[in-house]
Amino acid sequence: MSVDTPLRSSAASLGTLVANARSRESGMFTEAEGKSLLASYGIDVPSGAQLELGQPCPANLRDPLVVKAISPTLVHKSDAGGVRVGVTSDELSRVEAEMTLSLREAGHELTGLLVEEMAPRGHEVIVGAVRSPGIGWNVMVGLGGILVEVFEDIAFGTAPLTKPQIADMLGQLRGMKVLDGARGGVSADLPALIDLISNLAGPAGLLAELPEEVVEIDLNPIIVSESGAIAVDARFLVGEAIPGPRPAPAASTADFGPLFNPRRVAVLGASAKNPNMCNRYIRNLQEGGFSGTIIPIHPTAEAIEGLPTAADLGAVDEPVDYAYVALPGARVAEALAKGAGKLRFAQVISSGFGEVEEGIELEAELTAAVKEAGIRLIGPNCLGTHVSAAHLSFIPEAPLTPGSTAVVSQSGGLSVDILRVGADRGIDFHSVVSIGNSADVSAAELVRAHLDDDGVEVIGLYLESLVIAAEVLRTLGASPQRKPVVLLAGGRTAGGSRAASSHTGALAGNHRLWPAFARQAGITLVDSLGDFASALHALSTLDLSKPIYGDDVVLFGNGGGASVLAADALDREGKATPTFPAELVDSLESLEVPPGNGFANPIDVPAGTLAVKSGEIAGDIVSLVLDGTEAAGTPAATMITHLNVGIIQRNLGDILGDVTGRIIASVAEASAASATPTQQMLVLKGDGSAETAAMIDDYTKRARGLGIPVFGAFEDAAVAARAVGEQHRAVASHTPNPATAFNADRCRKGE
Fold first, then answer.
1. Does residue 480 have a cis bond before it (omega within 30 degrees)?
2. Are 536 and 161 in contact (CB under 8 A)?
3. Cα→Cα distances 67→31, 80, 90, 300, 311, Å
4. What is the pLDDT of residues 350-377, one digit of tens each?
5. Cis omega (within 30 of 0) for bond into 602
6. E strands of 353-501, at which residues?
């Protein structure tokens, strides 16, 4: 069989390859089969032939050759002495005899040889893919060869991949300089490598056609020379069929108006005798100022919490927008079925469903019941929905100032923390929805609804499932709209790696896939609830319509050591604080201020300098910096002003009054007057005293009213600066990719 005369495979021929692989102990395509398949999709492979034992080398193959062992039980050929390079055609019989012995010693039987022409000199790169349930193909690229698992210089993405996404994956590699020809080495033909990966993992690539029984692929190594990329080894593993992903919602599949602006709310589970969480929920609505109608559902009580009841949902006279349900799990489906034709959304707080093995069937019964009744289900196993404008919340004393930040959370408990911490950080929420098991309404569907809602400007996500994250990724990719998105992910540990036969499978752990998903989707990934709140606060406060140039940051404030720590925090987030051009430094030094200033960036000034013009000198400094960096062609993306409020006010306040307030106001005025679109942020530091803390609270409110986000630590501001830069680029560069919405169907071809 010649591997350089392939035919593009049909579903029937793919099925034959899968059946043949199942008949082998290795469960794999032969290398010749795999390479023929690759070549049929435009992926270069070496010229060669599969030979029976004792068969001479074809005359059309040119020395030197690579000889590889064929055995139905052999997986890693090199480990068993099953690969020889630099062989001439007249040495083939000797090599065959030696391989027979070496494989026999390793417990394998040699049944044939694959003989190929050697690839040209170049870099060894690995490209692989491993299929994950509900996600599809996770694609890996990295510096390859036998040491790929030692160096682990790899990057991941999820198919289908566009060529810009593939280029971005390559850009993540630490060894990219090697591929670029560092130290006189070979300069790799990167366009050819990108084309190869696209032919494998692009919207019309091989992965989209493979049946679900093909679960892992390794092309290792791919030799990338100065003039091409050629796959010199190929491994296709067959196993139990792994279901592909659900299609991304092409548009909002439900009218979410009744959920986010409910006028009639039913509560199922409140008691007339022993107050419980449903009673507390009713009180939350009453105390929070909910102006709609609340209908407790109870079979016998006439009134609960001072409100008239209905015996069941069927007894309610008018349609109900939203139901809060906390009944025993076994009673939920029957209770909701009575709302057919009347109830729009039901949020089931009850647990004991699909999150535990014994509740899987109960959840299936519930979803079937609500589907038949025409009710959209949120949950089960969640805590509730918060909508600020509607004064609807599941927590007492909820923050109800309407805002533009919408959050979707898999965790009910964390959604409480998101509301509390977020409000403390200055976030005004549009909504927070805890989705629990998301048996019906999914995170992706809510994200799509938020993308379509003009009242939402920023989206936050707390997710624990890579499957759900993959659905969100496809939704963002397919949507014509794009808004800033921040993700806090649970379960980001190396323990997610599963045992695998391929290098790719062994390396595809959760700790790598979460960042890969976020990068590919243009989502800002954060590590903690505090970082989540910081990023959302900045994105919801700043004017994101301003253009942003680069990743540079200007630091301005009092305290040299503080500036050093701030620069370190920014560097950890990939943000630079470059030195100003000499002309700008000269301009700053010409200001009439006391000595002891550092004007090179960071700008370090003592309290005496900040006292000039009673604090308004800050505006002069900001104006010079913005105009000077613009003139030099290096405008900063962000300027962070950091002030030690305790020092400033204790040393200067008695004489000059509200110096800190004038600094903040002058910074805002100078920024607004400048044509340079640098985003302003503020870090206010205290001294531990209650008096200073109270001043900081007041200054924080003032600054936020001026459109400047405020943080208590440099680390928070650094995360926020990264988020603003990432999301500005994601929104500005977004091009809808409809192929992502149909990935699930394409992945099932060949069944």
1. no
2. no
3. 12, 13, 12, 83, 79
4. 999 999 999 999 999 999 999 999 999 9
5. yes
6. 376-378, 385-387, 405-409, 429-434, 458-463, 485-489
Identity (one letter) of the amino acid at 112? G
pLDDT above 60 (res 501): no
Q: Is residue 741 within 8 Å of residue 247, measured between CB atoms?
A: yes
Q: What is the mean pLDDT of residues 522-527?
A: 96
Cα separation, 237 vs 666, in Å, equals 65
Residue 248 has what pLDDT? 58
Q: Taking a C-beta distance cutoff of 8 angstroms, is the pair 702, 731 a contact?
A: no
CA distance 259 to 653: 50
How far is it, in rounded angstroms, from Cα 449 to Cα 447? 5
| Lookup result for tokens 């690839």 | 119
Sheet containing 48-52: give its strands across: 48-52, 112-117, 65-70, 83-87
The rounded distance, in Å, linking the Cα atoms of 709 and 699 is: 11
pLDDT at 175: 86
Distances (CA, A) of 40 to 10, 45, 189, 350, 395: 10, 10, 21, 53, 59
Using only the alpha carbons of the chain, give its radius of gyration. Answer: 31
- The tokens describing 404, both together, are 């533009």
DSSP letters, 291-324, are: -SEEEEE-SS-SEETTEE-BSSGGG-SS-EEEEE
What are the backbone dihedrals phi and psi of residue 632, each rounded to the nearest 5 degrees, phi first?
-80, 0
Residue 298 to residue 295: CA distance in whole angstroms: 9
Greatest pairwise CA separation for the chain in angstroms: 100
Find where tokens 């055609």 sit: 89
* Structure confidence at residue 654 (pLDDT): 83
Nearest-5° angle of CA 455, CA 456, CA 459?
170
CA distances from 713 to 344, 561, 692 (A): 44, 14, 15
Confidence of residue 4 (pLDDT cuts 50, 70, 90): very low
Note whether 550 and 638 are within 8 A (CB).
no
- Pairing of β 48-52 and β 112-117: antiparallel
Q: What is the mean pLDDT of the chain?
A: 90
Measured CA to CA, the distance from residue 248 to residue 475 in angstroms comes to: 5
Q: Is the sign of the CA dihedral 51, 53, 57, 62 positive or negative? A: positive
Contact, 326 vs 412, CB < 8 A? no
- Taking only the tens place, the pLDDT of each residue in 543-578 is 988 888 888 999 999 887 888 999 999 999 999 999
